[in-house]
Amino acid sequence: MPAILRAAGVDNTIPFLREAYTFISRRCDGLGSDLFSTRIMLTPVVCMRGADAAQFFYDGGRFTRQGAMPQTVLRLLQDKGSIQGLDGAAHRARKAMFMSLMSPDRISHVAELLERHWHVAVAQWASRPEVTLLPEIGHILSRTACDWVGVPLTERQAPAMSRELQAMIRGAGQIGPGTLHALTLRRRTERRMRRLVRDVRAGRVQAEGDSPLATIARHRDIDGAALTDATAAVEIINLLRPMVAVNRFITFAALALHQHPAWRRRLAGDEGWLEPFVQEVRRFYPFFPVIGGRALMGCDWGGHHFAAGDWVILDLYGTNHDRRLWEEPEQFQPERFKDWPGHPYTFIPQGAGDFMTGHRCPGEWITIALIKRAVRLLCGMRYEVPPQDLSISLSEMPAAPRSGLVISQVCAAE
Ligand code: HEM
């Protein structure tokens, strides 16, 4: 078996943090290989990209997420006991519970809730000189997510909840005081959610029969045991936090409408372009850069033998920008998704493979529905985009337009 190519440098932690979204692709291009080995945090790791790599990584239960992410990222994004840390039959049972929440009715309900909260917010935006979309859409999504999941939220609690959920997302890509602050805020949200689960189970709070809150509170794992209060709280946050994170995709969609104004007219003239536009937003703009795993068993791919325990990082952003899979990948071209038949391994902003048996994101349909509705609402609004720094740094995780996308002179309806 030929030896795997090694990236230059003894340890690539600093280049990885500095280059972030482009770290793996640059080296794959330079070495002419879809996989290479290096060290990150002094630990040997195999980095890989492309559709075949995604299939190898996601299918067959070969890789666990346990021990595959730095502790701070794990604490902020998933945490102990969460679905992402499960494997095999235990994972499939928990995943079935998540997927049961993703019915067409429930997904159209989430878009309705977004619209309701959007209108309330926009009425206030109209009286303000300027509005920064990234955090403001986060506030709208925080209310939307709480309503959808069934988490009671008073007017007084709403700003803190939004702040805590948005901090978890921001903090996950940082190292330093921001991360510690985010962890402190997360602990507050966890305490509140644990109390809520206890109240629902004791009948002190009524959760609607088929709401996500009620479903999680009564779910039984493969061993027949109910989730502990702590795990149930973690899984509730696993719905709330990523729903709020959709604010990044919606902000990117607003940026695309601003930088490609022809699309605003096209979308107004033909609703059939909405889905291709939204899919291109999810492909083109940077969000989840990579995903890590550790081999659960000995396995071979790309001429390399992975031993059980080996650490691997799959390039999600690089695969979405792989020029062998996407023509002119650095161009924003929604046309590429018109009549696109779908593919489980080439378009992987939210993971690859099968929803039920692998770790692919269960929230993908909700994400699409939320962005679609937001794009429609943005197209129905009039506003100005004053001069500002709209650049997106591919070195910062999670990425966003530097200014957060400021708008002014908002007028709710055309
Ligand atoms: C898993 C990204 C939205 C809930 C994942 C994974 C990615 C991802 C890349 C795969 C992780 C892996 O392979 O281990 C995103 C992005 C989103 C988003 C970029 C856009 C904001 C959502 C939403 C929900 C959600 C809206 C819930 C409503 C989850 C859960 C998992 C997951 C529970 C773990 C699944 C498992 O381990 O089987 N997400 N996600 N995500 N996502 Fe999302």
CATH architectural name = Orthogonal Bundle
Bound molecules: protoporphyrin IX containing FE
Main β sheet profile: 5 strands, mixed
Mean pLDDT metric = 94
Number of helices: 15
Gyration radius, rounded: 21 Å
Give the assembly state of these chains: single chain
Integer tally of domains: 1
- Helix content range: 40-55%
H/E series, N to C? Answer: HHEEHEHHHEHHHHHHHEEEEHHEE
Shape: globular
| Classification by helices and strands | alpha+beta
Q: How do the strands of the widest beta sheet line up side by side? A: 1-2-8-5-3
CATH T-level topology: Cytochrome p450
Explain briefly what this protein structure is.
By secondary structure, this protein is an alpha+beta fold. The protein has helices at 13-19, 23-31, 51-58, 71-77, 88-100, 104-125, 133-149, 158-172, 177-201, 212-218, 229-259, 261-269, 274-284, 316-320, 364-379, and strands at 35-40, 43-49, 63-64, 130-132, 290-295, 299-301, 304-306, 311-315, 382-384, 406-411.
Task: Give a description of the structure.
There is one protein chain. The chain is of the alpha+beta class and about 425 residues long. The protein has one domain: Cytochrome p450 (Orthogonal Bundle), CATH 1.10.630.10. It has 15 helices and ten strands. It has a five-stranded mixed sheet. Strands 4-10-9 form a three-stranded antiparallel sheet. Strands 6-7 form a two-stranded antiparallel sheet. It starts with 12 loop residues before the first helix and ends with a strand. The chain binds protoporphyrin IX containing FE (HEM). Protoporphyrin IX containing FE binds next to helix 5, helix 11 and helix 15.
